[in-house]
Amino acid sequence: MTAVRILDRLLGASELHPAGRRIEDLETPVPVVDLDIALANLVRWQDHLDGLGIANRPHIKTHKLALLAQLQVALGARGITVQKLGEAEVMAEAGLADQLLTFNVVGAAKLARLKALARRIDIAVVADSPGVVEGLAEAGRSAGRDIRVLVECDTGAGRCGVQTPQAARDLALAIDRHSGVTFGGLMTYPKSGTRARTAAFLEEAVAHLRQAGLEARTVSSGGSPDMWSSEGLSAVSEYRAGTYIYNDRSLVARGTARVEDCALTVAATVVSRPTPGRAILDSGSKALTSDLMGLTGFGSVPAHGDAVVYEVSEEHGFLGVADDARVPAVGEVVRVLPNHCCPVSNLFDRIVLVKGGEVIGSVAVDARGRSQ
Amino acid sequence: MTAVRILDRLLGASELHPAGRRIEDLETPVPVVDLDIALANLVRWQDHLDGLGIANRPHIKTHKLALLAQLQVALGARGITVQKLGEAEVMAEAGLADQLLTFNVVGAAKLARLKALARRIDIAVVADSPGVVEGLAEAGRSAGRDIRVLVECDTGAGRCGVQTPQAARDLALAIDRHSGVTFGGLMTYPKSGTRARTAAFLEEAVAHLRQAGLEARTVSSGGSPDMWSSEGLSAVSEYRAGTYIYNDRSLVARGTARVEDCALTVAATVVSRPTPGRAILDSGSKALTSDLMGLTGFGSVPAHGDAVVYEVSEEHGFLGVADDARVPAVGEVVRVLPNHCCPVSNLFDRIVLVKGGEVIGSVAVDARGRSQ
Prior knowledge:
Helix content of chain A: 25-40%
Oligomer: homodimer
Distance between the termini of chain A: 37 Å
């Protein structure tokens, strides 16, 4: 089946609510996703990973939509990545049966939820300390089903993860000794621009594991900014990218995507034109977020000379329009390209879908707010 | 009735869901509101405004809870302030019948919603251009009930608003000429630290209005950072503050509140301790937001030597703990004081309430996500 037909089949099974036909008539602020662009992004990336012989495990934290997770899998992804248990539960409910949860599961309540999930779907998790492994092992034993655990490695991002390749081996051995869990491999979220360093860490860890008689069946890396670089992927068997489905202003600034590859914009209405070059939008930090991602401003409007949302308050966006660009009038709907698309999805109950240049309806953002 | 009994009565009528008894047992991340602190904040501010003879019209965008809006009114607030129509609708549903919507209502869909609201409750709105007034007038005529319109004045914040006192008078005259609307007064959201400049603008506008035969029955100012200063309020008849009910790290940094006056914290669990001084929390920008408010870091943990959340990704908070403070262990729940409490409320479906040091349950955040 062609990618377009796969999308049409999934849309046919989706609960679309009517939202008018024209973007100009939408109630704003609201995120709008151009499905033609998103589909092209998905196909291009799946083809790229297929060519490299690397499995695709897209991160659904970007869109939080069952529809798009199903689309990613139907187009060839091995499974999905989730960041929180709440996302995993929502996606399991929607039939996504192969998931990697790249977050330490800690505490009795969350381990009980993991146990319930492990009984329903194939869910792998991560750990970076013996204490986390012990909790997972107990959950696995009590689920009556071994839980696959990947060792999270800190290859330079300074977030979670064991600090050295030797520590990765030691934790893998600890996982291997416990009943209720099996060692599944290595996971890292590398800092952008550290592919060589990450590769060295992972290769050394794999070698240590072999010496200890263990195999890293999965070596999972991720990150959107460097996704198109083939450097330093020798040890990597699986890639987790999230933002690529929509792209955003930060990825355009880094050269990872072009403006025409950006599928998500926030439709916003001009509510005031207090001075000649200033237009106030009805979308502030509660619609665009305050994520700067190293950029100036909180978003831009490509259709108006790339005018920048130079300031936000909670419900106002301050748009500065250059002298040579047309300033949108009060009542006009503009489309803001946000700095970072992922947290925008998380702010809205529903998202509007566009196909063939026309609004086709809105869908619920299934995993919105599932941060627990 | 004492303030405590008013709160108890409202709690008795609220739909509380069980959430355990101890903060350490909560599913995290989740915002926790200490009602004893919030109540003291409300009483102190109401007393202060009563002493000044200024009406209290608290902004509910901070908490988005019907319960707390009702509490504010029961304690003496004249009515409430809302920033978006969606908030107004939710609060009207909860019986809040005196509202000021401090946002230009623009476009056919939103004007139809305003018309429906104007039939149900006493709602005043703002305008800063003749085009906005025309839409409001049509809505008022079609509602069969005049809508009170305040002229929004830009007294230095550079957001919405007419630019001069003369322009305020001219727009007031335009409102006065239209059927369907009545001129209700002036509204400004002054930039922090510009009380004198704001006072000069408002006084001049009031004088111009008098000369034109119009009275500014309401002169509404707002803002939390300067709220305790009595300077420059001579023309002001009503004050809109929002953050004061909870307070936050930014107001502590500005000296507006003390840490012990902060009612909202985000309960977060330590999920990793990858290095001795680094603790990774399960609360990132999707729980704390990326609002910096001029501060360093995204929040702090007062109980651990004021340790700072020095970095966030979407679901991780990077907590740096000083050498002389105890580093919380994996599995421990800490309470993060966010930089800015208002957008935090907007990220969660439910919020946990604490009273007398005990968790008493959770309530739905009624107007969460109502940015349209």
